[in-house]
Fold this protein.
Amino acid sequence: MTTRPRILTGDTPTGPLHLGHYVGSVRRRVELQDTYDCYFIVANMHAYTTRADKPAEIRTHALEIVRDYLAMGIDPARSTIFLQTEVPAIAELTYFFAMLLPFNRVMRNPTLKDEIQVKGLGETYCFGFPLYAVGQTADILAFRAHAVPVGEDQIPHIELTREVARRFNQMYCGVSDQADDDDHESLGGVFAVPRADVGAVGRLVGTDGVNKMSKSLNNAIFITDTPKQVKKKLGKLYTGRQSPTEPGDTSNALFDYVRTFIPDADRVRELETAYATGADIGDGHIKVEVAEAISALLAPMQERRARYEGDDDAILDILRDGCRRANECAEETLALAKKAAHLHFFDRSLSYR
């Protein structure tokens, strides 16, 4: 453990990571590896909230996410990658934090409500589904994180986490309810009040041009996609523009991709000007240029990922070491929290074989 500020973020293993994950959060994680103490969680228990009948698939996806992390540039020598289910302090803190949050407050979380609607769960979701919103607060606070790199849709989860941190510190550590969020630790609070760290692209629209990029909506570009697949997927992006000589609206989804993936700022401005004035430049031409830029971005990721393809032992070694380091931090946090709440009776330690 270091004296640097700490971040915690991660992903639920529901399938392969895509470009939305990369530009929304993972790219930011890579940037922070040298300035923050980084913990990246594979939230495999959260996957059971909707897929408890597919345990083997969840296990496979958990390992694949680690391959995607490595491909995107996360370095296990500089960051801690670990499995949620191998850090028991998280489950204990989840149960504890559930006592600090009114049920109605959890259910008002807009991200939770949106997921219930998008996934068509109706009233059939398990009790663990709303509980996972509490679990996310434990994921973060178990590591006393100062910041959480997320997409903008996850901000409500961070706000819930901030509420829990404040409430715990005020109730059990004597921190004033008038204290500034940044001062909670220095005033004796166990937990920092973490902030959301939203990347430059908080939400990447999918190739349908409407919804957020998502595997379940079949509108995602994956980091394993070939240049041919990327070009085909972008070809489906609809803008509504009828002619290359018709002035176009550069606030559309296509130009979100232009600004996100074409690295040359001068070229971006050139395309925006030509498109907005109807200077005989077609959507198809721009899509091809964007597709080439995306494929150039993906090429080194695919090369790094190929080194770990089929080698589960290497992935498990990374996770074993990461879980060991994660437990050192989380067990310390749990001990501090239990002492503050008068729940501590004995010391304990964990080990991995």
User: Anything to note?
Assistant: The chain has a mean pLDDT of 92. The chain has 13 helices and five strands.
